[in-house]
Amino acid sequence: MKIFDEIESEVQSYARSFPRVFHRAQGAYLFDQEGNQYLDFLAGAGTLNYGHNNPVFKEKLIEYILEDGITHGLDMHTKAKGEFLETFKQYILEPRGLEYMVQFTGPTGTNAVEAALKLARNVTGRENVISFTNGFHGCSLAALSVTGNSHHRGAAGTSLGAGVSTVPFDGYLGDGIETTEYLDKVLSDSSSGVDTPAAVIVETVQGEGGINAASVGWLQNLAAVCKKHDVLLIVDDIQAGCGRTGTFFSFEESGITPDIVTMSKSLSGYGLPFAVVLMRPELDEWKPGEHNGTFRGNNLAFVTAKAAIETYWKDDAFEKDIKRKGDYIHSRTQEIVNEFGEGNFILQGRGMMRGINCVSGELAGKITKKCFQNGLMIETSGADDQVVKFLCPLIISDEDLKKGIDILERAIRDVCAKEDDMPEAKSYFDENYDIAV
Amino acid sequence: MKIFDEIESEVQSYARSFPRVFHRAQGAYLFDQEGNQYLDFLAGAGTLNYGHNNPVFKEKLIEYILEDGITHGLDMHTKAKGEFLETFKQYILEPRGLEYMVQFTGPTGTNAVEAALKLARNVTGRENVISFTNGFHGCSLAALSVTGNSHHRGAAGTSLGAGVSTVPFDGYLGDGIETTEYLDKVLSDSSSGVDTPAAVIVETVQGEGGINAASVGWLQNLAAVCKKHDVLLIVDDIQAGCGRTGTFFSFEESGITPDIVTMSKSLSGYGLPFAVVLMRPELDEWKPGEHNGTFRGNNLAFVTAKAAIETYWKDDAFEKDIKRKGDYIHSRTQEIVNEFGEGNFILQGRGMMRGINCVSGELAGKITKKCFQNGLMIETSGADDQVVKFLCPLIISDEDLKKGIDILERAIRDVCAKEDDMPEAKSYFDENYDIAV
Amino acid sequence: MKIFDEIESEVQSYARSFPRVFHRAQGAYLFDQEGNQYLDFLAGAGTLNYGHNNPVFKEKLIEYILEDGITHGLDMHTKAKGEFLETFKQYILEPRGLEYMVQFTGPTGTNAVEAALKLARNVTGRENVISFTNGFHGCSLAALSVTGNSHHRGAAGTSLGAGVSTVPFDGYLGDGIETTEYLDKVLSDSSSGVDTPAAVIVETVQGEGGINAASVGWLQNLAAVCKKHDVLLIVDDIQAGCGRTGTFFSFEESGITPDIVTMSKSLSGYGLPFAVVLMRPELDEWKPGEHNGTFRGNNLAFVTAKAAIETYWKDDAFEKDIKRKGDYIHSRTQEIVNEFGEGNFILQGRGMMRGINCVSGELAGKITKKCFQNGLMIETSGADDQVVKFLCPLIISDEDLKKGIDILERAIRDVCAKEDDMPEAKSYFDENYDIAV
Amino acid sequence: MKIFDEIESEVQSYARSFPRVFHRAQGAYLFDQEGNQYLDFLAGAGTLNYGHNNPVFKEKLIEYILEDGITHGLDMHTKAKGEFLETFKQYILEPRGLEYMVQFTGPTGTNAVEAALKLARNVTGRENVISFTNGFHGCSLAALSVTGNSHHRGAAGTSLGAGVSTVPFDGYLGDGIETTEYLDKVLSDSSSGVDTPAAVIVETVQGEGGINAASVGWLQNLAAVCKKHDVLLIVDDIQAGCGRTGTFFSFEESGITPDIVTMSKSLSGYGLPFAVVLMRPELDEWKPGEHNGTFRGNNLAFVTAKAAIETYWKDDAFEKDIKRKGDYIHSRTQEIVNEFGEGNFILQGRGMMRGINCVSGELAGKITKKCFQNGLMIETSGADDQVVKFLCPLIISDEDLKKGIDILERAIRDVCAKEDDMPEAKSYFDENYDIAV
């Protein structure tokens, strides 16, 4: 650990929650240098939907590297890229009746968001963009300007406001207030102070903002308002996409068709940096090289992304499995909330993107800390870190899923039931708790 | 090729200059699907200083993947990251007397630039940043705001100007005008309209801007002006770093010590996405997670980056080799310019980052097009794409280096000597030109 | 008229609604060059609360000019300024228990708003400002950024959004939704995307935005939310102040005490350019000359402003008179709305700042046009110019007030009752209608 | 004085330099409440070119007020406005071969600048504007963004940089460097980081920036660069116009024709708030009411402005007189500089807009302070207040002009010659110095 203290910047975040030096990983487990194993309910913040080092993809990756397949290709045509595009078209776009052009941006989510915002502004000739309360889209400047979190916003050191209007997300104003009506009103009112926007950018389930799931009806209303006002709809599917909510795209259930979609995180399948922007063909007004980036041709990611699609998305078996596990998480967490929530805890999310809103960030932090003591890596989310966030690999075994929730349940019981009088819990590692090696 | 036409966005750039489907690559060569080989004087726009799929790094990479080393680690401590840091400290920082903290940003250059600008602004509490004419720092919004190129700037669709003042780079105002004096004057003058900046961001050799190399004296003056006005000096070493100019950091020759350094491109050695920000320890005022990014723990890159440093930077042999080859390039291109430049062509750059300024973008384009017909991939740079840019792998063999320059020389001769009356050159592939397979 | 066509810019606005060349004015009447008289229910857009060329102030003004009193004094101390300050303190501030410092800005409302925003931002060190839907604060850039109207916003030609968040005004989201709760929520939520603001800027009755009057309760809630979050409350009392709503300051009825108040329009009493910013003493952190303006010492305005206060604000007689007339306007317009509004028209405003919302801008335009044909100058307001706006001089005689409303009533009857079948109304001037000379 | 201490804001500036309570003024003199007289070499910061309370204009003003001429006319046509326009056309525009449309903005210089910038941006569809080092254009946000002074800029509390690039004014880079060539270069270079601007905004003589006079050749080059790049040229003639430099417009000598001109300060002649924007007819693309302002119809100013033009600009007698006096100031100050400047002092300006650059702000401050002790009001200018600025009324008598310069000369002698060893000078008032009453 010494080298990290010595020369790694203070900006570290997860390393503080999980103060181990990790070495290997497989499926739903990470292993530290001492060989201890940890059940992973964080999954690279949603990047490892198919688990760590998925063996099927690994084989393809090794094969490609061994044959000296191009690693770094800028935006040049390569066999690996072509095959990814074919696969993506055949198994993702066509079965869903979607016609999109694919832009390879720099291989990070924030880069895809930057590109999407540029495109929307250039195509429409408008500057303003609608973002939502508790939205999170990245930490580069334009992405940050549509991100709600003040911790991140405050780090910019320069003006963020230009060309962004924030409106309330689904449910933000309480039950019974359909916030898309507010959006419709300000867009209909030439004196509202909200300039006609190029686009609306939205997450169907807000990952960092607290696992807030928009309802199907709200998404449909949002799409209708966008259409009515000739405003582009950008779905940022970076965290909720790639099956996390139960379908490949998180918006499938609502039946809407966004004009632009950003994808990253689990797209490569193997945790390799990769990001794309999908856009309706008429919107593809990019001029050559207008938006670029050195690593937009990360060919290793093309190889594993293709493998992921071929392995999991050729039929609906995987979707059904996600749904089944999602239902299990829901029912287990419902019981936990009923038993320990004292009427305060709230369940959030959908599919395998779930959260328990503990209202208090301090409480949620105690719970996740205790989980880690017991071998479960799980994080919090939300403005005050008040939501315990489930992001386990979608391919997790039923046994491991149960085990993880069991640990969580015990942690919540320990923290909530006896918070005042119980002695500091001993680590379950000390007690030879079963998941510890 | 069909799939690219069908669903890849029009934003493609290099794919237009080099319209082939590439598959494999090794050292200084790419191979297309038909097996034709191309000598690579582009090197991933400076990302492949150690050549494609360097066999030493490849071995380490395969080994790491096979043992299920963590691929994606967010910002958690991992064995691979720790070893990279140890190696970087031992062979890069310590021998050069540099004390820097290392921040792992999202693994693209533009992300590192965004982080560097945030840090400088937060530490100083100032908003303005000084950028230079013809500077290029990336395409996300804050990086774009310090980038000179109007093609890129114009794509933002929103205001770029806030908090950036552009001043003339070395030589911009002609010989005999030391532009750091202008900078000193506007910073000394409380009524200049140039607000006291947080930082100056500079490339020692402007890669995209036309291979404009700042002189040692100018860099020293720049550092002195920064110090005088208590302004942070950021060297963006993304393209010029990692040995390109002859030393690991491009600023070593000048003896200056930047406050902040951004690195990416060839840092991973293998073309894998990777980027860091180096900062003087006193500047590391980051709060946990203030700047984040899903792929800031691209562990495969840590493995190859360590291998690259261990292989090439343990002693000064590599530096000497770069210098020798750089001199060769210089003398060969000098001859070419003398013979064909008609007094107009200008040599630019230093080390193995060189360019021939052909003044006309049209002319430079004809030259690089003809090179490609003859099996050499080489690109242009500069505001009008008027500079033929040498970015061959640093590890290129003498033979291949000679071969590449020979092709270039022939192309220039063909284009310049007989531009008006010669028939359209047949492709050398058709003529079984020797470098074609 | 020829000279206006020849060389006056197309930017003209009121000159299009009232296409005459006016020459003289007295009390509630304007007279054109031909001697025709027009009853003025526009009153310089709220600048002539005391009527045109009020004879009492006129005498003081003539006297001052004759004795060569200083006309233009920059910000130097002058007898006229001192006497204005004394009078303002004695009859306005002290009786209301208000302690404010007075800043003389450039003598236009927009300039006072610019100064108020600067002050709030400097004192708090924050950039964001909360503005409201349908707010109007002026046409210079910072004032424009807090103005809702897209017609004005669109003319800026540069980014407006930086550092401003627009939230819904009282009633904007319909009955039963207290929009200050929304404001409280976004300010309480660190992930709302609404950065903690320096200030909230609000009109108690939105003049240009459609005569929308905030309720007493809403203003009290707004003040409480500001206090809770340590945000400055700026009341822009430029149009609603100086007695227009029944009290000198429009916020008196609500019992709140703004941190900063902007005043202009009727402040000089005589229609002379004048504007001030009032601020709580602790906020007066201005450095000498930080905000300046050549005409901030328009001493003629000091003279008439003093006369206006002494004449109308020494006791509560004027307030009572405004209330009485306001009630008359209300009851008369209520009858009109009941008779002709077909359930659509809505009464708005309070005091002598009233409006009939005709829902349709086209309809409202026909009404005011017909009014003008009959000798009444009255204008529209609101996002779609859908509100017929009453801004008659506060000192109007009962007879003239009745006459004006009679003309309006007739216009509404003509326009609404027989809109489809009636012939184009002849001008009442042609028919020797009684108010024409 | 008590009331000023009690409730006037700390923002006061001139009131600190001249701590008296003034009451009357006539021609070149102000009188305080005690009857002391002060010779005015400040002239309302250039607003009182025709002296205080010019008796000819005063007569017209009184007459107009007595007959109840309209005081406040919004933008409606009035007899007074029409007559001003006729006069302006006949005696100002036509004799100079200028075709301009006239826009009446809010009656302050900064408002005219805001309007001019809007117009330029809207007509061209571009955002960037070129401003110059040491330029001053006002304190509302857009005007501030093109102003160089950090004292004013720093007060904005929000981003200023958007859409403005500052380039060096004439002489800023030293002799022999023609800064318009730098401007031409950055506008010709698509990678300069200086986006093609809507307009250049320039003062021919920088008033607040230190009485820096652009040469005729530089202005011609600037106009040529603007034309070459299809960029609008805005001359801000607010301080240098209305005869201050010897001709009505300050740019007449150079023979250039700006696309847009802003005027204010001495335009009304009597110190009354007044401002206009002049624009080439093709640029008058304003939509009705796009830029407005309550006091844009300050009819009293129209009356005095007409009188000023008729009195002084019907023939060239006034121009010749200004030139003669300007030459006198120049030769007197040349002698003073030669005798006391020790080779450091520099003469600046042209016509009757002159300055002595004392290099040190402290020194200049001592000089002006001593002048005031001796009955002369004169101010400093420049980034460090290092320039003693001559802005006496253009109509000053030869005797008073000599008297003022005599006082200044004595002050400089006192301050410079014996700075170290002389006792603190007694006030000349105490010594019955001849100009004191």
Written account of the structure:
- Chains A, B, C, D: Its EC number is 2.6.1.76.
- Chains A, B, C, D: Belongs to the class-III pyridoxal-phosphate-dependent aminotransferase family.
- The structure is a homotetramer of 437-residue chains.
- With 437 residues, chain A is of the alpha/beta class.
- Chain A is built from 14 helices and 17 strands.
- Chain A has helices spanning 2-7, 14-17, 43-46, 55-66, 79-93, 109-124, 141-145, 150-153, 179-188, 216-228, 299-312, 317-340, 361-373, 398-417, and strands at 22-26, 29-32, 37-40, 101-104, 129-132, 164-167, 199-202, 205-206, 212-213, 232-236, 260-263, 276-279, 346-350, 353-357, 376-377, 379-381, 387-390.
- In chain A, α13 packs across α14 (398-417).
- Chain A is globular and about 55 Å long.
- At the A-B interface, α1, α2, β1, α3 and α4 of A face α1, α2, β1, α3 and α4 of B.
Counting helices, strands and paired strands, the structural category of chain A is alpha/beta
Biggest interface and residues each: A-B, 118 and 118 residues
List the total number of helices of chain A. Answer: 14
Distance between the termini of chain A: 21 Å
Uncertain segments of chain A are: 421-437
Q: How are strands sequenced across the largest beta sheet of chain A? A: 4-12-11-10-7-5-6
Rounded mean pLDDT score of chain A: 94
Largest sheet of chain A: 7 strands, mixed
Strand content of chain A: 5-15%
Query: How many strand elements of chain A?
Result: 17
Oligomeric composition of the shown chains:
homotetramer
Radius of gyration of chain A: 22 Å
Q: Helicity of chain A, in percent?
A: 25-40%
Estimate the global geometry of chain A from the Cα principal axes. Answer: globular
